[in-house]
Amino acid sequence: MKRKIKLGVFGFGCVGQGLYSVLHQTKGINAEIKKICIKHPDKARPIDASFFTTSRDEILNDPEIDVVVELIDEVDAAFEIVSSALRKRKAVVSANKKMIAENFPALLKLQQEFQTPFLYEASCCASIPVIRNLEEYYDNDLLTSVEGILNGSTNYILTHIFENNKAFDEALKDAQRLGYAESDPSLDVRALDPKYKLLIILVHAFGIILNPGDIFNYGIQNLKDADIRYAREKNARIKLIARCCKNGNKVYAYCMPRFVPVSDTLNKVTYEYNGLLLEGAFAEHQFFMGKGAGGNATGSAVLSDISALTYDYRYEYKKLNQNLNHTYTREIELEVYVSYNGAIQPAAADFESISVRHESPGFNYLVGRISLLKLMKAKWMDDPSVNLVLTENNI
Ligand code: HSE
Fold this sequence. Notes:
This protein is of the alpha/beta class and 395 residues long. Among the domains are: 5-128 and 295-321, Rossmann fold (3-Layer(aba) Sandwich); 330-395, Alpha-Beta Plaits (2-Layer Sandwich). The chain has helices spanning 14-24, 56-60, 75-87, 97-102, 104-114, 131-137, 152-164, 168-177, 186-189, 192-206, 225-233, 295-310, 318-321, 372-377, and strands at residues 5-10, 31-37, 52-53, 67-70, 91-94, 118-119, 143-149, 216-217, 236-247, 250-261, 273-280, 284-291, 327-328, 333-340, 351-360, 363-371, 386-390. Strands 7, 8, 9, 10, 11, 12 and 13 form a 7-stranded mixed beta sheet that branches. Helix 7 crosses helix 8 (168-177). Residues 126, 151-153, 180-182, 188, 193, 292-293 line the site of L-homoserine (HSE).
C-alpha cells in the first residue's frame, strides 16, 4: 500500500483512544482514521463527533477504508467484524486475544481463502514485539522455550501486594481504573487472559494450534496472606507465569503462579510490565521486557501493525508451514505448593510424591510432585480455601 491508508476502527475504549493518541503523535506513519464505530453514541468523547458512527456497515462497506482495526471487547461481535472485513479483503488489525485464541483455525482459513493479512501484535504483551519476532527472527525450530509474565494487571496487583503491602482488592481497583484490567477482571485474575496469549504464542513459536480448554490455567484468585508470608520467608515473590516448552518433539504449556526468587530476572518485571524469557538451542537465554497493558502501550503495538501493513506485511505462519511434527503433551510432572485451611484437602493420591507437609491452626500446606494431567482434573483445586503455586524447582 503506497498511498495513505485509511482506517476504520471498531471501539474507542482504552486501546482505541491509545491508538488515536499515538497515531497523532507519530509523524512517519502514512495512515489516518476515517471512521470509528462505537456502541454508545451519547457518551462524551474527547474527539470530534464526526469521527463516530454506530453503523458497522459504514466502515465495512466503505471502499476507501483499507484497514479495519478491531478493538472491542465482545468476542462474538469482534469475530463477526473481523470475518466480514477479511471476506471483503480489508486487512485487519486486532488486539483481541480471547477472540483470536478461541477462533484461531477459522481466522487462519479466512486469511488463506481471501489472501488478506490479519495482524495481532497487540494481543500479546502489548508493547513487546513478540509475534513478529517469533515469526521472523525465530523462524527456525531452534527455539526451545518461551515463558514469562503475560498479564499486566495481575503483575501490577502482585507487585503492590509484595512491595507496598497493598490489599488485593485495592490493587485490582487501581488496575481497573488505569485501564490495565479486562472489563471482566476475572479473566486476568483467573489467568485466562495470559492463557489466550500463550495460545497465540504457541502457534508462532512451535506451530501448534490448541483450544483454550487444552491448557491448564490457575490464577491468583485464592492467594492468602499466609502464602504471601511463606513466599517472603523463602526470599521469593509470587509471579503469574505462562510457559510453553519443547522437549524433543513434545511441547507442554501451562499458566500458573510460581515462587520466583527475589534475585531472578522475572522479578525485575514489576507493575503493569510484562517480561518474556526465550530460550534457543544456540542463542540460549534472551529476555524481553515492556509495558504489557494500558492504552498507549497497546496502541503503539496496533500502530506498529498498521505500519507493517503499509509495506504489505503478513504472517507467513512459518512454524505451521514447516510441519514440525510437534505434539502437545500434558504428561509432565511439576512440583507444587498447595496451601489449604478448610474442610477440603488436596487428595494425596493425586500426587506422585509429597516431600513436605505442614499443619498448624488455620494454615496447612504441602509440597509435592503431581502430573499436569492430574492437576487439570483435580476437583479440590477449585475450592477457594485451597491455593496452588509452582515451586522454584521446575525447569
Ligand atoms: N488485561 C490485560 C493485562 C490487558 O492486564 O495484561 C493487556 O492484554
